[in-house]
Amino acid sequence: MNYRLTLAFCGTGYHGWQVQQNARTVSETVQDAAEAVLGRRYDLTGCSRTDSGVHASGFVAVLRTDKSLAPSSLLKALNVKLPPDISVVDCREAPPDFHPRYGARAKRYLYLYYDSPARNPFYRDRMWHSPQHLEETRMDRAARLFLGRHNFSAFCAAGGKIPEEERFRTLYDCSVRREGERVILSVTGDGFLYHMVRIMAGTLLEVSRGKIAPEDIGEIIASRDRSRAGLTAPSCGLYLDHVFYEEGGIPHDGTC
User: Fold this and answer.
1) Pair 85, 30: CB distance under 8 Å
2) Tens-digit pLDDT profile for residues 208-249
């Protein structure tokens, strides 16, 4: 049986998704829970790697097992065994050839900021705090210049292993909105480079502060020069929000 799991997790206490030696990871923790339920350890394949401290509300993984349980029963049993900062929010049977990573048509990430003169302890490790007011309209104007297919080398961290000539990605949606004191960057694309969304988020903060003009985004992208973009935002504000497996469901603003 192949079970498609949709997971929500707070990544603060984990060194990302992928199993690592001598480090607590989300994948290993979910495998531990599955082993406790099913009686042996089974393969678990995720839709993406995530960095330490990154969160998710719609992370997709496949659990392959020779046991047969009703998906609703497996969901309940896994949640009993999982710690409070990880939850299975959906469980369903998947076709034998379903691959959560290679079958994905697009992913949507959110980056959450909040602006307030004082830090909010309830937002700790969940959002990036800005003591200065964020100019969300200015940030949104800049964000929309990321749309389309580009070489995003200027927004790839030095640790990225993909050759520069292969760093083309298509962004279908990129926008910034405000909800009270929260400011939310939403980015949907067919793939992302190492730290790409976090560098975009840091660049947009500098747009808000007037250090980068919104209209400079196109020139920064064209330069393929990481030093032209802004700082790398901390992992605490990044969320993998949704994985799209059907092309028709991908948000598309018509510009790319």
Assistant:
1) no
2) 999 999 999 999 999 999 999 999 999 999 999 999 998 667
- Spatial CA neighbour of 86 closest among 177, 190, 14, 171: 14
Contact 137, 24 (CB under 8 A): no
**pLDDT one-digit tens code per residue, 153-194:** 999 998 778 899 999 999 999 999 999 999 999 999 999 999
Q: What is the pTM of this model?
A: 0.94
How many helices (H) and strands (E) would you count in the chain?
A: 5, 10
∠ CA 32-38-39, nearest 5°, is: 80
Q: Does 51 participate in catalysis according to the annotation? A: yes
Report long-range pairs for 210-218 (Cβ below 8 Å, ≥24 apart): 212/142, 214/138, 214/139, 214/141, 214/142, 214/145, 215/142, 215/145, 217/142, 217/145, 217/146, 218/145
Distance CA 256, CA 55 (A): 28
Instruction: Give the whole-angstrom CA distance, residue 232 versus residue 50.
Output: 15
Residue 11 in contact with residue 52, Cβ under 8 Å? Answer: yes
Catalytic residue, chosen from 32, 43, 51, 125, is 51
**Separation of first and last alpha carbons in the chain:** 38
Helix or strand or coil: residue 255? Answer: coil
Cβ partners under 8 Å of residue 35, min gap 6: 41, 42
Residue pair 240/48 in contact (Cβ under 8 Å)? The answer is yes
